[in-house]
Amino acid sequence: DAGITQSPRHKVTETGTPVTLRCHQTENHRYMYWYRQDPGHGLRLIHYSYGVKDTDKGEVSDGYSVSRSKTEDFLLTLESATSSQTSVYFCAISELGAGYTFGSGTRLTVV
Amino acid sequence: AQSVTQLDSQVPVFEEAPVELRCNYSSSVSVYLFWYVQYPNQGLQLLLKYLSGSTLVESINGFEAEFNKSQTSFHLRKPSVHISDTAEYFCAVSERNSGNTPLVFGKGTRLSVIA
Q: For residues A94 and A90, what is the distance between their CA atoms, to the nearest angstrom?
């Protein structure tokens, strides 16, 4: 979607390696979120941020960390990737009164 | 905390027939309600939302949803579906008047429109 981009779009990595996914926004929205989507589970919240350096855990945060050093970027890191982290990852942004906007997703495969 | 239940994981329907996708939610506080649509290999697009006011909300492509507080439901309906409506539909909630709390999603309903 315009104003929010995720990179990379696709990634294949090996078990045990670290992986970082990037979410970049140009909307200057305060709130940013990382979700993972898996068949039969819908979207589940991993971590979210309510400002620079302000983050909190979501429902499925184990094995993931995040960082937000500036408003426009929200990074999701898998410290040591496992096969259970094979998923499609979506970033979202929101601001009071502006609703939620989702990125196009990153398809991550851990082999 | 909120939770969302989408009662049907898959709904097959013939073209031009009506469809209802069911969504129930649970929350101890007032909520905002949303329906998102995801076409194959794409991201999520907002279909419609209930924030306040009229309990019946409509989308530009003929879908409508009605907020029913007593039944804690927000079912999505369309009187006549098209092949192009084939997609996965997600119901979501967030807390009202609490800043921008994260959306909580249901598990999704896959709508398949059959010619």
A: 13
Using alpha carbons, select from A82, A78, B93, A25 the residue that is nearest to residue A33.
A25
B6, B43, B108: residue with CB nearest A102: B43
Q: Kindly state whether B50 is in contact with chain A, defined as any CB-CB distance less than 8 angstroms.
A: no
Which tokens is A39 given? Answer: 């068949």
Query: For residue B36, what pLDDT is reported?
Result: 95
Burial bucket for residue A66 (CB in 10 Å: 0-12, 13-18, 19+): buried
A31 contact residues in B (CB cutoff 8 A): 99-100
Q: What is the pLDDT of residues B39-96, one digit of tens each?
A: 988 889 999 999 888 899 999 889 999 999 999 999 999 999 999 999 999 999 988 8
Cβ contact (<8 Å) for A50 and B9? no
Q: Which residue has the higher pLDDT, B43 or B1?
A: B43
Q: Which of B36, B44, B100 sits opposite A94 (nearest CB)?
A: B100
Alpha-carbon distance of B21 to A66, in angstroms, equals 35
CA angle B106, A79, A55 (to 5 degrees): 55
pLDDT digits (tens, 9 = 90+) for B16-35: 999 999 999 999 888 899 99
Helix H or strand E segment including A60: none
